# Entry
Amino acid sequence: MPKRASTSSGRTHRTRRPQRHKDVLHRQGGHRRHDFKCVSCKLDVSLDAPGTAHRNHCPNCLASLHVDRRIPGDRAAACRGRMEALSMSVRPDGEWMIIHQCQSCDEISANRIAGDDNALALVRLVMKPLRDTSIAHRMLLQLGPEPHVRDIATRGTGTSAAGLGPALVQLRPTDA
Amino acid sequence: MSSTDKTPSDSPSTVLAGSFTCAWCGLTVSAVAGDGTRRNHCPSCLHSQHVLDHVEGGPSQCQSRMAPIAVAVLRTGDWMVIHRCIRCNELTSNPICTDDNQLILMRMAVRPLAQPPFPLEAFGDL
# Structure
């Protein structure tokens, strides 16, 4: 067996033709130099995203990588830790921003959502604070003076956030 | 320069020891909350002040106002307020206190649902 293996390998070595010349370059500077692989779900992601020129997170699982320090794109951070989506913020013009937090150094950053981001993951992120109704319930009791609000609050005990919908609609932004 | 562990005493918004004046609404707040934890934001309007540099570490030279932009929920269920400095855009997260304004907290939590970038009707079927 070893003898035969050695002969076959010798024959392949003798008859092996030189490798074809490769036009495409997969390494740095090649045609995929703008792509990245998600650290969390291993999806290959292109940087060409609809709706944004600064994609920095995976459209599937919203995870990012800690490479920037103060200015987005400076690539000055030595951390290279995984950044998980922490919460959602809204700009005054209505744009959604994902707040990322680094899992190794707790640094926080914000990035606009892209047009092809996973809508279910985005909505799950938004609904995270509303899943626990105790704070919403406490807030409605604090609002107090209007009897119909208090009525909704007492009715809403032990129900899901959907039961609080009519009450939340009545909240108007104040001066701040 | 004598300084406390939280805010430099030469800051104009720090007049009394153990208390600070809110940079946004002007409310004078004690730096220790009712349950003994230190607070760094105004319980009324949730605004804070940029006194710590979280990228480099140590005190920050910015001293600008930090506006609350989002709430985050930890795995433990505790809520955090995400602040953003209006001058240098640095982001910080701080735990909420029990006497924080629940209306502003809930307003920040439901704010994304007021202007969704895609229709939410499809999620009713899930």
About this structure: Strands of chain A lie at 36-37, 44-45, 64-65, 82-90, 96-102, 108-112. Confidence is low (pLDDT under 50) at residues 156-176 of chain A. Chain A touches chain B at residues 69-70, 86-90, 94-97, 99, 101, 107-110, 113, 119-120, 123, 126, 128-132, 135-136, 138-139, 142-143, 168, 171, 173-174, 176 (CB under 8 Å).
